[in-house]
Amino acid sequence: MNERVKLKVADENSINRTITRLTHEILEKNKGIYNLVIVGIRTRGEYIAKRVAEKIEKIENVKMQIGVLDVVLYRDDLRLRTKIPKVQISDIPFEIDDKTVVLVDDVIYTGRTTRAALDALVDYGRPAKIQLAVLVDRGGREMPICPDYIGMKLPVSVGEEVRVKVKEVDGEDGVFIVEVVDES
Amino acid sequence: MSLSIEHLLGLDGVPKEDIEAILETAFSFREVLERPIKKVPSLQGKTVVNLFFEPSTRTRLSFEIAEKRLSADIINFSASVSSLEKGESLKDTVQNILAMKVDGIVIRHSDPGAAKLLTKFVDAAVINAGDGTHEHPTQALLDMMSIKEKLGTLEDINVAIVGDIKHSRVALSNIFGLKTMGANVFLCGPPTFIPVGVETLGVRVLKDIDEVLEIADVVNVLRIQRERQGRGYIPSLREYRARFGLTKERLDKIKRRLVIMHPGPMNRGVEIDSEVAESEHSIILHQVLNGVAVRMAVLFLLLGGKKE
Question: Which of A129, B140, B195, B257 could form a disulfide with B173 if both were Cys (CB 3.0 to 4.6 A apart)?
């Protein structure tokens, strides 16, 4: 499988502005940061979450608690796969009981990753609320899951995918629409 | 991620990439074991049978808890209360169990090669939980995980295995695994406990434990199998302790960091002193916790996905 970039939808500045808006929406909806913690979904959600947390810290002048969640062990398609995705360590170094957890991911598509993340999160405790923030909503939901905060909506066709790149993993920031080319 | 092996029968010939994948996954499972709810749904709907033809406490419990933490369904089978007592063959027993549609088999048997034999007539992933004096791969993997946790690497470190090498399945699996991962392995024990020609496996045999302690980063102390003492392998337990025991006096002479391991059960005051087993150098209890994580990783990687 290979990918061909069809369109660059957002660059570094654009992503930065979108994350700033998401941050303000999170603060507005929660009326500040009381009881608020941030948890990013591996891999790229982790870095979007860190940027949200940094912006909150600048605006509110407080230190945010931030965790990372790996959802591989909770995926509902494991038994259908011949290759198992790499399991990585989740790191939530604080109690989430009675907290408002803002779950952050880069892209929402079917909703299955979010479902797995919700299952994983409740194994750490019983949050008062869980909210979902995504940088990109590409539509195509297979589960009744709706994000609370959406950076950009990008409905794409069958055969196309949305790729979010972050500097920390990919060396550059950007949102791309790619075409998946099956070379076999 | 997937392993190149379909079964875990031993570490002889298992590629480095597979061992690395198992250890890396095991470290992620360690985190699961420290959560408030220590259970994940990854093997939901899979059935694993634990076939124990030999008595075992810690290995069986460790596998059972690993399977439960992954939400697998479990069948426990022990030979002493089975139709094997009535003369049924291993093959018939296992085929009957498999007719109940199991996905994985964990087997402990006194005969070397029993796990491999099973793979010839079953369509399930087989994990060797100890076959006689041959191999005990998950014990070696948990040992390697514990060393890596403590020292950060397995590459180019000196690991000494001290004791009854000849009758130990732990030693053989450790030699294969550690050599694959680039460690230097030293063996030490009375000549009656050192297999003839063991040097061909790429290990060095040292006769003096004090010499071992001078160069070792890790000392893996093996149990003296008291049940073999009537057979004249060593003159007496007291003499064994004097010449090969990891005593407090010997440890006190070492002024640097040393990692001390023991697969259990320990004969305190014979191969290892209580003070040594409980010293800051000892990681014996880490080994037990890592045992569950490693077994979770092996089960997950062998049973998690769909077979190609």
Answer: B140
Cβ-nearest to B306 among A70, A82, A90: A82
Q: Which pairing describes strands B158-162 and B184-188: parallel, antiparallel, or unpaired? A: parallel
Task: Count Cα atoms within 13 angstroms, Cβ side, for A85.
Answer: 17
Q: Does the beta-carbon distance from B2 to A125 stay under 8 Å? A: no
Q: Is B63 helix (H, G, I), strand (E, B) or coil?
A: helix
pLDDT at A126: 94
Q: What is the pLDDT of residue B97?
A: 79
Does pLDDT of B257 surpass 90? no
How is chain B classified by DSSP, letter by letter? Answer: ---S-SSB--STT--HHHHHHHHHHHHHHHHHHTSSS----TTTT-EEEEEESS--SHHHHHHHHHHHHTT-EEEEEEGGGSGGGGT--HHHHHHHHHTT--SEEEEEESSTTHHHHHHTT-SSEEEEEEETTS--HHHHHHHHHHHHHHHS--TT-EEEEES--TT-HHHHHHHHHHHHTT-EEEEES-GGGS-TTGGGGS-EEES-HHHHHHH-SEEEEPPP-GGGGGGTSSS-HHHHHHHH-B-HHHHHH--S--EEE--S---BTTTB-HHHHTSTTB-HHHHHHHHHHHHHHHHHHHHSS---
Question: In this structure, what is the dihedral angle of CA atoms B234, B237, B242, B248, given to the nearest 10 degrees?
Answer: 140
Taking residues A90-97, report their average pLDDT.
94
Tokens of B132: 């006689």
pLDDT at residue B87 greater than cutoff 70: no
Contact status of A1 with chain B (Cβ, < 8 Å): no
| Contact call for residues A87 and A22 (beta carbons, < 8 A) | no
Residue bearing the bigger pLDDT, A8 or B226: A8
Query: Band of the pLDDT at B14, cuts 50, 70, 90?
Result: very high
Could you tell me if A16 and A174 are in contact, meaning their C-beta atoms sit under 8 angstroms apart? Answer: no
Query: Quick check: ipTM above 0.85?
Result: no
CA distance A16 to chain B (A): 32
pLDDT value at A175 more than 70: yes
The two structure tokens encoding residue A29: 């909806």
| Model pLDDT, residue B235 | 82
Q: What are phi and psi of B67, to 5 degrees?
A: -65, -40
CB spacing of B28 vs A89 below 8 angstroms: yes
